Amino acid sequence: MTIQRMIRESGKIVFFGGAGVSTESGIPDFRSEDGLYRQKYSVPPETILSSDYFYAHTGAFYDFYRDKMLCLSAKPNAAHFALAKLEREGKLSAVVTQNIDGLHQAAGSKNVFELHGSVHRNTCLRCKKQYSAEFILKSKGAPRCACGGIVKPDVVLYGEPLDSATVDGAVNAIRDADMLIVAGTSLSVYPAAGFIGYFQGKHSVLINRDETPFDDRCELVVRGKVGEVLSDL
Ligand code: APR
Questions:
Q1: Using a 6 Å CB cutoff, which residues line ligand 1?
Q2: Where does the pLDDT of residue 187 fall: very low under 50, low under 70, confident under 90, or very high at 90 and above?
Q3: Which of 31, 113, 195, 229 maximizes ligand 1 atoms within 8 Å of its Cβ, making it the mutation to test the pocket?
Q4: Which runs of E-coded beta strand occur in the chain?
Q5: What percent of the chain has pLDDT over 90?
């Protein structure tokens, strides 16, 4: 069965995506050959992107974060726009993403569960004042609030819990879906990767360049670029 046929037969599609959805927007993923975690650093990126490292070496965290995690010039690609269109047509009920780049909302998607937060939300640890990603990009060293407190990005660092309301929304959407599209993710980070286990609907499709642990558990595997596959719908 083709993905087009599955979509025609479905009315409550949920899309579950990862960094591979944004590579066609010029944002490298993490675990591919040219991914962020494959590049050589004195401290491994997974260590830098941890809660302990943020509080112990805030300046060094931000040097890496501004350089590698803030891609504010990136634009939505065909995958993001195709999903926003499916939502407008009433076919797609939610996007569940592990990405923090905000590109789904920039393409027009409304119901987006950002499991790992967003670079566009930044909060002063002392007075809770909100700051933009642009403020963080322009800052030097550890960004300071007007009150003197440190500003922290609302992204889930290693060692931090996911936002419970976001998790509940994502799991409920997946549980209620009649079709699940999983794309651009290695499904190697938990608890996020485990949420697709709540799917109990009819059609499931995986669109991923490399193999994943989910390949043998879904109805259709498409080895391709998610932007190209979704733009052909
Ligand atoms: N089309 C389809 N698949 C793609 C594309 C593309 N254009 N580009 C990359 N991929 C695939 C790669 O083959 C890879 O399997 O996307 C997957 C990306 O996997 P990861 O780099 O591991 O990214 P992700 O699964 O999102 O990582 C999960 O890890 O470090 C944490 O918080 C970080 O949210 C991230 C989480």
A1: 18-20, 23-24, 29-32, 35, 98, 116, 184-186, 188-189, 207-210, 225-227
A2: very high
A3: 31
A4: 13-17, 92-97, 112-114, 117-124, 130-131, 151-155, 179-183, 203-207, 220-222
A5: 96
**Tens-place pLDDT, residues 208-228:** 999 999 999 999 999 999 999
Query: pLDDT, tens digit, for every residue of 48-59?
Result: 999 999 999 999
Q: Alpha-carbon distance 143 to 30, whole Å?
A: 25
pTM for the whole structure: 0.97
136, 58 contact by CB (below 8 A): no
Cα 51 to averaged position of ligand 1 atoms, centre (Å): 21
- CB 136, CB 118: distance < 8 Å: no
The structure tokens listed for 166 are 């976001």
